[in-house]
Write a structure and sequence with these properties.
The complex is a heterodimer. Chain A is 80% helix and 0% strand. Chain A has seven helices and no strands. At the A-B interface, helix 3, helix 4 and helix 7 of A face helix 3 and helix 8 of B.
Chain lengths: 155, 162
């Protein structure tokens, strides 16, 4: 199946065009900065840094992170098609995908919890310990995604 | 100037050290990626608020993210200098790297403009009134230039000499 994917016209274009692969990589790193940047700010805020910054602000900001995620899902899938067989047999790649999916799932959980906890307390909610733990787990996910992603090129 | 710096770097023992430690390069790259996420992540919040978006955010409070932005910049300055020392002849003549450095300098000048001209305007600014044009200009310049830095940086392995 992955061999077939590599032979599709779109994969051929990504692999053979002089500019497609580098341009997709360049877009991918901007998306990375948006997603990891916003989510790590949110997680650090939940863990107690920069108190004073309204937690409610991270609800609309998370939408921007989702835009970054969609950009990276598209650029990532395109990059993947050109070397699908290599990627599915690459352990760091598989770890990266698991880390990203976990990070996005946790983002959904945090979003829901934030909305509920803010609705109860109006703006300056006490963050529950369990929400803090989830924020910590989220940070670990994004750090893992970056580390594993970079190691794809080396292992 | 890059020529001169490259000649200094190529003769240094640091150059030998970096090239000898095969594991060091990916570690530096990982730190560089974490650094850019902190840098741009913080700036997205600060600059978009300063440009007039996300009104729910307290403008002054967003500036509490600045230490994290500086941390990201610091991490990337140190790892970036080490990259240059490790492979000076590759970077100094690379058009992607050259444009990236020019953009970093523009971003630095833009930050100074913020520090001297915009910050005094923001002290005690009422959240409901719209921000002066210069604040929006500095904010968008920051976002565009740093995005350009990321794009150029990622293209370094793929572009030629300048």
């Amino acid at each position: 199946m992955f061999l077939w994917l590599e032979s599709t016209p779109i994969a051929m274009w990504v692999g053979l065009s002089l500019w497609a692969y580098p341009m997709l990589l360049a877009v991918h790193i901007v998306g990375l900065a948006v997603v990891v940047g916003i989510f790590s700010m949110r997680d650090l805020r939940l863990l107690g840094m920069f108190s004073g910054l309204q937690l409610s602000a991270f609800l609309p900001l998370s939408r921007l992170a989702w835009v970054g995620f969609i950009i990276n899902a598209i650029s990532g899938i395109l990059l993947f098609t050109s070397q699908a067989v290599t990627f599915v047999n690459n352990t760091p790649f598989l770890i990266k995908i698991v880390a990203i999916l976990s990070g996005m799932a946790l983002a959904g959980v945090i979003q829901t919890r934030l909305r509920n906890e803010l609705a109860l307390a109006g703006g300056y909610a006490e963050i529950s310990d369990s929400t803090r733990s989830i924020a910590m787990a989220s940070l670990v996910c994004w750090l893992t995604a970056i580390i594993a992603g970079r190691l794809i090129a080396y292992l | 100037m890059l020529d001169f710096l490259a000649r200094v770097a190529i003769d240094s023992s640091l150059n030998q050290t970096i090239q000898a430690a095969y594991w060091l390069w990916p570690v530096l790259e990982i730190i560089h990626f974490v650094g850019l996420s902190l840098l741009l992540g913080g700036l997205i919040v600060i600059d978009l608020r300063m440009a007039g978006h996300f009104h729910g955010l307290d403008l002054q409070a967003t500036h509490k993210l600045l230490p994290l932005v500086f941390l990201g910049f610091g991490l990337n300055l140190v790892t970036g200098v080490l990259f240059f020392y490790g492979d000076p002849m590759r970077y100094s003549i690379n058009i992607g790297f050259q444009i990236k450095m020019i953009l970093v300098i523009i971003a630095g000048l833009n930050a100074l403009l913020y520090y001297w001209k915009v910050r005094p305007l923001l002290i005690g600014w009422d959240s409901d009134t719209s921000l002066p044009g210069i604040a929006r200009g500095v904010a968008y310049t920051s976002l565009f230039v740093w995005t350009g830095v990321l794009l150029c940086g990622r293209l370094i392995p793929y572009v030629g000499t300048g």
